[in-house]
Write a structure and sequence with these properties.
Length: 446
């Protein structure tokens, strides 16, 4: 192995002008402040198990990228040059620079990835268009990021790709029979051809009732109990706040999924999800601006949900507090609809109207679960009175607790922020309706 061979530990440390990329602190919102040349950047290479390469034909851009990523990055002028250095024996993450934002180069990178499964490519581009994103993801590039999106998303993407490469099969050397290629011991068993996860939609006919709090914690609790992914779709298309509630800075949103049109399949959709690392919940975020809400129609949403359920155990859908064709269409494909209300007359009135509407639409009542939030509030109205008025049992009763706004403000789901609170216990019990608790599943196995 030559000193600059990718996978070796003697990679030349590039030196060059300061970065054109932008940086922001971990967890902070994306900013467009350029990295100051004097700021010491911790080498990304030291935080990942894979070797790190930069492919960029423009020498100045290449140097800038390398400097941004810190020490230990191997620079290459072309995909061919990178390919000639790969051994296939060690995982390599390659960052393709802005000059690689071209279908031909992206296809070349895809062909190299086919030959070397231990290679993961991330494209950094000046103009992140849906066409480029779609082409790159289809070619086998793992992620596509905008160059002005900041350094932190790139570092996170590198870490994510590196983590998955640890399980990639080793490249087949010429003359070695395919059967002799070792399989990672913990490689997941191939799944069934078709999977149909449950869709649980959470809705309230009155804003601020706690829909997002319930949907988020339900998804987190279901993820703890599921072997396949659990996804939360933020279908509050104008003011969705699932990402904010989980402290996520999404690169892609539901609008990208819609823009893929007929090309949308499970693989493309999965690549658009952002993972909430502490819990593993996958999120399809709402549009970043209300103006984009119109781009998501009823048929788009149902198609997205139907595609998600092919690889997820649960798809939890958070909704806005009004009924429109988008919300009604998602009701149609839901296995369960959680109706969230509170102990106040407007909320009860709206719930009553919603129940009547759902009956008219022919949605079976056994699909509905009534969730009374802040059910212990001393407001001269009790749960029994609400149940009598609605002719419906409130099967889930969530108390009022200051830990809820505290958890929201910290960007943490309440079930992990305050697991011993009455709120968390009620939401965990709600999850029992859909999936067996982890402990009792263990007991049953014995
Ligand atoms: N059980 C509870 N105890 C105390 N505060 C709560 C409780 N449930 C929700 N809240 C607070 O109420 C506010 C609204 O909650 P949430 O955003 O989940 O409602 P929503 O129905 O999704 O609202 P929107 O209509 O804006 O989407 C949040 O600030 C949250 O902290
Ligand atoms: Mg909400």
């Amino acid at each position: 192995m030559t000193p600059d061979q990718v996978g070796g530990h003697h990679l030349q440390s590039p030196v060059g002008p300061s970065s054109a990329l932008t940086a922001h602190d971990a967890g902070a919102p994306v900013s467009s402040e350029p990295i100051a040349p004097t700021v010491a950047v911790p080498p990304v290479r030291s935080t990942i198990g894979a070797s790190l390469a930069v492919v960029e034909p423009d020498p100045e851009l290449r140097d800038q990228l390398c400097v941004s990523l810190g020490e230990g990055v191997a620079p290459f002028g072309s995909v061919e040059e990178l390919a000639s250095r790969l051994t296939g024996a060690v995982p390599v993450v390659a960052v393709l620079g802005p000059s690689c934002s071209d279908d031909v180069v992206v296809d070349q990178a895809g062909a190299v990835v086919d030959r070397f499964p231990m290679l993961g490519c991330i494209l950094v581009t000046e103009q992140l268009t849906t066409a480029l994103l779609q082409h790159a993801l289809r070619a086998g590039v793992r992620d596509v990021l905008a160059v002005n999106g900041g350094l932190q998303p790139l570092v996170e993407a590198i870490q994510r790709v590196s983590a998955t490469l640890e399980h990639a099969p080793v490249a087949v050397a010429p003359g070695v029979p395919v059967d002799d290629v070792p399989t990672p011991p913990d490689a997941p068993a191939p799944g069934p051809e078709f999977h149909c996860g449950q869709v649980v939609t959470v809705f309230s006919p009155k804003g601020g009732s706690g829909t997002t709090v319930v949907a988020t914690s339900l998804a987190v609790e279901l993820a703890r109990r599921s072997s396949r992914p659990v996804c939360i779709v933020d279908a509050d298309l104008q003011f969705g706040d699932v990402s904010v509630g989980l402290k996520l800075a999404p690169h892609h949103t539901i609008v990208d999924a819609v823009a893929a049109g007929e090309g949308l399949d499970a693989a493309l959709l999965e690549s658009l999800l952002v993972t909430h690392e502490p819990t593993g919940v996958r999120v399809l975020p709402a549009p970043l601006e209300p103006a984009y809400a119109d781009q998501v129609g009823a048929a788009d949403l149902t198609r997205i949900v139907e595609t998600l359920r092919t690889f997820c155990d649960f798809v939890v859908v958070d909704t806005p507090s009004y009924l429109n064709d988008v919300v009604l269409s998602v009701f149609d494909v839901s296995d369960s609809i959680a109706l969230v209300g509170g102990l106040d007359i407007p909320s009860i009135k709206n719930l009553k109207v919603t129940l009547q509407t759902l009956r008219l639409l022919g949605i079976p009542e056994d699909k509905l679960v009534m969730v009374l939030n802040r059910s212990d509030s001393k407001v001269k109205l009790d749960v029994a009175e609400v149940e009598r008025a609605l002719q419906f049992k409130a099967e889930v009763q969530v108390p009022s607790d200051v830990c809820v706004p505290q958890s929201v403000n910290r960007g943490e789901p309440v079930v992990t922020h305050a697991p011993r609170s009455g709120v968390a216990k009620a939401l965990v019990a709600m999850a029992d309706r859909y999936a067996a608790p982890v402990e009792s599943r263990h007991k049953r196995r014995k």
